[in-house]
Design a protein that fits this description.
Helix 5 packs across helix 6, helix 9 runs antiparallel to helix 10 and helix 9 packs antiparallel against helix 11. The protein contains eleven helices and four strands. It folds into two domains: 149 residues, no CATH class; 90 residues, no CATH class. The strands form two sheets. A two-stranded antiparallel ribbon has the order 1-2. A two-stranded antiparallel sheet has the order 3-4. It is mainly α.
């Protein structure tokens, strides 16, 4: 599975899997099904209220409202739902910028505009063929806008971050980690776990800052906040294990 590395604004590196072609197709089918249900519901309500008996004007108004919702649905939802339509949210995929950040409004608009080429002019073949042959499963609109669809579940799992057994001969990077208490390390675990569930990288940044200040240490160049907390936990586990062995 193709992956993309995202570096957050707090310098946290997370690997995400690129959304597959099947996931994209299912997300689109779900969105189309929603509009089909809206059509059925609208027709049912119209029959109950005798809306169409008011003449052609009523029919025209309903058609215009429905058409506007259908045309602008993806653009509006992606802008206000953080890169997701209802179908994408159900399939747990979302639109991001190729630089790993949230797309700008202009990028959302560009990928929406090229739906004319991807779906309308080419009868969906443009999007299907381009996504199938693209390394990152991008349709034409994604390529032009500089966007990509990813799975919202990070490829980096919480177990891979927190629970890291040390090997014989391991040398702690931060010996100061031994000054922490079990409660401190448990809190770090909770912060990382909260990040993996919510994606709120600010809590990781704040926790890393507090640990650095508490232990009066400076990480080496290139070590981001997530890796720093990961290393602190690993060092603490190693130091605590050796302290327990020394007391036996």
């Amino acid at each position: 599975m193709e992956t993309i590395k995202i570096t957050t604004s707090q310098n946290i590196d997370i690997d995400y899997e690129v959304a597959g072609l099947g996931e994209r197709i299912l997300a689109r089918l779900i969105d189309l099904a929603i509009f089909f249900l809206i059509y059925i519901l609208g027709a049912f309500m119209a029959s109950l209220t005798n809306w169409f008996t008011h003449g052609d004007l009523g029919i025209i108004i309903v058609i215009i409202v429905y058409a506007v919702l259908f045309v602008f649905y993806d653009l509006i939802f992606e802008i206000f739902m953080n890169g997701q339509s209802i179908g994408k949210r159900i399939m747990k995929i979302k639109v991001i910028s190729l630089d790993g950040g949230q797309p700008r409004v202009g990028q959302y608009f560009m990928r929406w505009l090229f739906r004319i080429v991807d779906f309308l002019i080419t009868f969906n073949l443009g999007a299907l063929i381009t996504a199938a042959v693209s390394d990152k499963t991008q349709r034409i609109g994604d390529i032009v806008a500089g966007t990509i669809l990813i799975r919202t579940t990070p490829r980096t799992k919480i177990n891979n971050i927190v629970f890291m057994p040390t090997y014989d001969g391991y040398q702690p990077v931060f010996k100061e980690a031994g000054q922490l208490s079990d409660k401190d390390v448990e809190l770090i675990h909770e912060i990382i776990n909260a990040y993996m569930k919510t994606g709120n990288n600010v809590v990781v940044y704040n926790m890393a800052l507090r640990v650095k200040e508490h232990l009066n240490i400076t990480p080496p160049n290139g070590m981001n906040d997530m890796l720093f907390l990961q290393t602190i936990i690993k060092d603490y586990n190693h130091i605590s294990a050796h302290m327990d062995m020394d007391t036996l």
